[in-house]
């Protein structure tokens, strides 16, 4: 399977990006998508630009968004934070997530950051295995979001000294 092209997200990607997130959530019992909890998806490119970050998407034929990843600097931690890490099931295991991750790794290295970090719903076990494969380690503690899904999240960090593309 050939990978769909990656590109910078635009604000026009709002609806298809939300559809990808909602579909990903639907794979997990009790994980619900509600627009009110994701205001950044109304203007996704502008949201990341305001934070000094970037958001990339993979677009399949027909304009469907089948993958996404966002990154934003966290200067006080000399790090970048990854968010909106989603891949359509049809493209999992095909290298799309690695290609998306490579964009964030280049972003972090270009800025001389010491670490990458992310938070992930405790239910997303497949994603956790992927992050660990990339060299992320789960840090102690969890956080509770008090959202409609009653989400608890794990914190993952990756030092860039040993980063692998």
Characterize this entry briefly:
About 25% of the residues lie in helices and about 30% in strands.
Rg, rounded, reads 15 Å
Query: CA-to-CA gap between the ends?
Result: 21 Å
Approximately what portion of the residues adopt beta-strand conformation? 25-35%
Specify the biggest β-sheet: 7 strands, mixed
General form: globular
On the 0 to 100 scale, the average pLDDT is 94
Spatial strand arrangement across the major sheet: 1-2-3-4-5-7-6
What is the string of helix and strand elements? EHHEEEHEHEE
**Class derived from helix and strand content:** alpha+beta
Number of strands: 7
Outline the low-pLDDT stretches.
none
Which bin fits the share of residues in helices? 25-40%
Helix count from the secondary structure assignment: 4
What does this structure look like?
The chain is an alpha+beta fold and 165 residues long. Helices cover 26% and strands 31% of the residues. The chain has four helices and seven strands; from the N terminus they run βααβββαβαββ. It has helices at 14-25, 44-50, 96-110, 125-133; strands spanning 6-8, 54-59, 65-74, 79-87, 115-121, 137-144, 152-159. Strands 1-2-3-4-5-7-6 form a seven-stranded mixed β-sheet, with helices on both faces. Strand 4 (79-87), helix 3 (96-110) and strand 5 form a beta-alpha-beta unit.
Task: Give the topology, please.
Layout: E1 6-8, H1 14-25, H2 44-50, E2 54-59, E3 65-74, E4 79-87, H3 96-110, E5 115-121, H4 125-133, E6 137-144, E7 152-159
Parallel strand pairs: 4-5
Antiparallel strand pairs: 1-2, 2-3, 3-4, 5-7, 6-7
Which keywords apply here?
7-stranded mixed β-sheet, 7 strands, alpha+beta, globular
């Amino acid at each position: 399977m050939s990978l769909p092209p990656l590109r910078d997200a635009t604000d026009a990607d709002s609806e298809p990006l939300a559809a990808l997130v909602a579909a990903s959530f639907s794979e997990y019992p009790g994980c619900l998508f509600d627009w009110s909890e994701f205001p950044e998806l109304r203007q996704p490119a502008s949201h990341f630009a305001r934070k000094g970050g970037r958001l990339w998407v993979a677009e399949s034929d027909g304009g469907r968004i089948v993958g996404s990843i966002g990154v934003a600097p966290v200067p006080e931690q000399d790090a970048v934070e990854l968010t909106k890490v989603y891949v359509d099931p049809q493209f999992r295991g095909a290298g799309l997530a690695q290609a998306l991750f490579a964009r964030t790794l280049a972003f972090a290295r270009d800025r001389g950051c010491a670490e990458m970090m992310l938070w992930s719903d405790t239910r997303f076990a497949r994603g956790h295995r992927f992050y660990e494969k990339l060299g992320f380690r789960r840090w102690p503690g969890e956080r509770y979001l008090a959202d409609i899904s009653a989400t608890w999240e794990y914190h993952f960090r990756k030092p860039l000294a040993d980063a692998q593309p």
